[in-house]
Amino acid sequence: xxxxxxxxxxxxxxxxxVTAVAExxxxxxxxxxxxxxxxxxxxxxxxxxxxxxxxxxxxxxDLLMVEIYDMKNQRLLxxxxxxxxxMQRQMSNGRMGNPMLPPSQSDPCAxxxxxxxxxxxxxxxxxxxxTKWEMVTDREGQNFRSLHWMDNERHIPLREQWTDGTVSELxxxxxxxxxxxxxxxxERKVTRPDGKQVTSTQWFDPELQIAVREELPGGNxxxxxxxxxxxxxxxxxxxxxxxxQLNSTKADxxxxxxxxxxxxxxxxxxx
Length: 271
Hints:
The chain is about 0% helix and about 50% strand. By secondary structure, the protein is mainly β. It has one domain. A 16-stranded mixed beta sheet has the order 7-8-9-10-11-12-13-14-15-1-2-3-4-5-6-16. The longest helix is centred in the first third of the chain and has 5 residues, at about 5-10. It is globular, with a radius of gyration of 19 Å. The N and C termini lie close together (about 10 Å).
């Protein structure tokens, strides 16, 4: 699963390739991103989220690294302030999606353009209204069928049943106060054909429309702290004057892109 929290800890420029951002705008804010693992190590990053722009600041090898995801201009920037240098990766129009935006439609094929989907029926699941979809994916001439129960309000899959028998369920557990903000707690459980289960928990912030905490199997967790909602200065998302460009590349190959969407919205893929 990839999402907004995972983007916070990226060590290289990553990009969403599912849909264009169109004219939608995310909530602007700043925060501290923390990733803690069971081995006692912790990673931290400063996060600035502007209008369809995201800036990450984190230390690496005694240097301050700055990553800018500029969905407005379909480009990725990596800045090294101590060296007054930067790298840029220009994306083809529409290749870059905004990881800070929730899904805008319930059709699971919106995130799997090579698949074919059809709506089957309307149901209720975990007390929420859902639409049941069938997805057919072609792999090397073979068709693989999966079922997806999509939440009508949030456009997220509350249940997914894959060809190999794997079942994934996402269920709401109620409201909680997290670091002074109201959040929805969600549990995701994946059951494999052999009966083994993997469970993770996510806290979804209704105002920001992203997950602000995720607890992973094994005790690892990722979290946004010290959230400050407000407009972010435009200069945070541009290259300062005097910086030297090291190289410039254009990414026309969609397979090279890393698909990213906000947690708790899991990828629509066959395991």
